[in-house]
Design a protein that fits this description.
Helix content is 29%, strand content 23%. Helix 2 runs parallel beside helix 4. The chain is globular, with a radius of gyration of 20 Å.
Amino acid sequence: MLRFILPLLLLTLLPAQAAVMLIYHHVATDTPRVTSVTPTELRQHLQHLKDNKFQVVALDTLISQLKNNQPIADNAVVITFDDSYENNFTTAHPILQEFGYPYTIFISPGSIDKGDGPLLNWQQVKQMSDDGVLVANHAMWHEHMAKPDAGESQAQWLDRMKQSILSAEASIELHTGQRHQWLAYPYGEYSAELEKLVLDLGFIGIGQHSGAIGNNTTLSSIPRYPAAGQYAELTNLSQKLRTLPFHISDYHGVNPVNKQNPPTLTVTLNTADFKPQQLQCFSGSELMKPSWLNDNTFSVTATKTLAKGRSRYNCTAPALSKPGYYYWYSQPWLN
């Protein structure tokens, strides 16, 4: 193993500059637990950020730093909400205002127009916008976007996705005056082809897979940590807040929509701040042993086929220069 360690240590042994983005959905006591935090839990999260001197920054600040390769504030945290739920306005918004923390809501204008479920209305969205909340794109109808529907050609699907993204952006601008060109993928589902479309349209793509964010993060698939359900516990959340991004120089053509099952993940790292023998990768509860193909490139494959739907591989390693922090990379899959 020493032959793997020495070449890595020739690189600069410094922790990566990092931010963590949190994703919330419901803030309520009577909504599905898997996508919910209670008002008390949200207050606990925000108080934890304050007590531990995390720097809560607006998403536009972080995006600007990433696009311009500028330094990211140490222990930076970005707060986001998905799915246009009304309790974001009635319950979450007043709590966040108390703390003075900036945040972003990702909304689906078509769903708001239709009145699907207990969603925000445009008056509430405009009030939040006027109060300084960033309002951004969650596709027009909160549709599954990663691949064509049955009987739909690739060209038809790409055109439909383009219209969904651009129509939603235009509607948000019409109602709020905001136009950021950030797309949070509904359900966190995306594919290599959708990533290319997002970048071709001049947008930033944001997922729901976990991981920290750094200047090397791919701008078509920025990760976020869920902060609801089982992940709402402070002991769980506090560890996620102490994570760093691996500096990945090559993803070797990884595509979340992968016909191989189980899929193989191969990545090349340019990170010196961990010991290769401490790298661990998981597929659900299965611990996968990384196979080092050369000094900086490893590959992992689960032994069991992945269930239909969404899943992921998570790879972590403790940071050498920042005790208590972990490097973290998550690769989502859609079967």
